[in-house]
Design brief:
The complex is a heterodimer. By secondary structure, chain A is α/β, with parallel strands linked by helices. Helices cover 37% and strands 21% of the residues of chain A. Chain A has a single domain (3-59, 66-273), classed as Protocatechuate 4,5-dioxygenase, Chain B, CATH 3.40.830. Chain A is built from ten helices and ten strands. Chain B is mostly helical. Chain B has one domain: Dioxygenase LigAB, LigA subunit (Protocatechuate 4,5-dioxygenase, Chain A, Orthogonal Bundle), CATH 1.10.700.10. Chain B is globular. Chain B starts with a helix and ends in a 24-residue tail after the last helix. The chains are: A alpha/beta, B mainly alpha.
Amino acid sequence: MSLVYSGVLSHAPGITGRADLVKNIDKRDEFYAALDRQRQEIEASGAEALIVMAAEHFANFFMNNMPAFCVGIGEKYSGPIEDPEWLKIQRADVPGAPDLGKRLTREIMQTVDTAYAEEWKFDHGIMVPLHFLTPNYDLPIIPVNINCQGPPLTPLHRAWAFGEAVRRACDSVPEKVALVGTGGISHWPATPDSGKINEAWDREFLDRLLRQDKEALLSYTDEETYRDGGQGGFEIRTYIAAAAAARGVGALQFYTPDLPIFAVGCTVARFDIV
Amino acid sequence: MSLYYLQKFLYELNRDEAIQEKCREDLASQLKGYELNEEELGALMDGDIGLLYVLGVNGQILMHYAAFLGVEWFDYLEMMRQGIEKYGPVRAGVYTMTGGGDAFTEEDTHQ
C-alpha cells in the first residue's frame, strides 16, 4: 500500500510526568484532546504499523557509536527506561514489526545509509507519544532515531533526504504505514531554563514546515537553532523528515507555548500525503 | 576524555536496572571500570547534581539520573542553579544555562 498518515507531535517527560503540576488545566486538556484526535486519525487511516521518528535521549545510542539514523527491526521493545513513577507511564512491552522494518530498511538504504537495531529501549521520547497514540500498545511500532542529541548532529538536509527515503520505502510495501515525527521546536529542556520557549521562532518554523518550504526549512544552521531555539531545538530534524515523507502541506491542529511546566511548546500537526 | 566516561557511566546506569541495583549496593565498585578524575568520582559518590551539570554532563543524561536518585523536578532545577553558583558556569557541552538563573516555569513560583 503506502504511507497513509504523516504528522508531528511534541514529546517531553513533563507531558505525562508533571501533568498534575499544570496550572492551566483547560490548556492542558486541549492539548490532550488534540493528541487524542491524532490517535483517532491514525486509527482511521487503517495503519497496520506506526513509524515513530524520534530524537532519543541516550537510551540506546551513545558517543561510542552514534548513528545519524537508525531503524528498529525488533520483534518487541520495552520502555520507559526512566523511573515509571517519575514519567507516570508504567513499564510495558511494545510490539515491533520486524519483517516490515527490514523491508523498509532495505529500501531506505538505497539512498540513505541507516543503521538498524533489533534491540531498542524506549525513553520518554517514544513512550510519551505512544501513551497518547497507542495507549493499549496494540499497533506494531517501528522506532526510528535521528541524531539530535550528540553533536556532530545529523545535517538538516540529510534528515529531509531520510524522510524522502522513508516515504519511498513505505510506498514499496503492501502494508499501510503511518508515521509521526516527534520532538520539540524551541526549548531548553533539562537545564535551569526549562520552561523557556521562543514562541516567535516556533511559529516561524511551523510556517515553513507546514508550507513545505524546503529551502527555508533547511536553511537553519545549528548555531542559529542553538541561539534561538536552544539545544532542544535540534529536534526539528524529526519534523523535517516527517514533512519530507508526506510531501503535502500541513495543518496545525494545536500549538501553545502556555504549558511551560511541560518544558516545550506543545504541538500537534498533520500533513497531506501527496 | 574524562567527561566522556563520566557520561558513559551515567548512560549505562540510566538504561539498565541491573546496574542500578548494583550501584545502590556498592557504587564505588561499579565506578572502577571508568576513567574518572577525583572531581567526577566525588560528584557521583555524592550524587552532586549541580557539579555534574557544571562538568558538562548532557542534560538528558543528567535528568534521567536525577529521576533515578528520586530528585523532584523543581529540586532538580534548583540543584543545577546552585551548582552554577557554587562551581561556576557549565564547562562543556550544549546544556548551558542561558537565562541567568531565572525560572521560566510559572509553577516554579508557587512551590
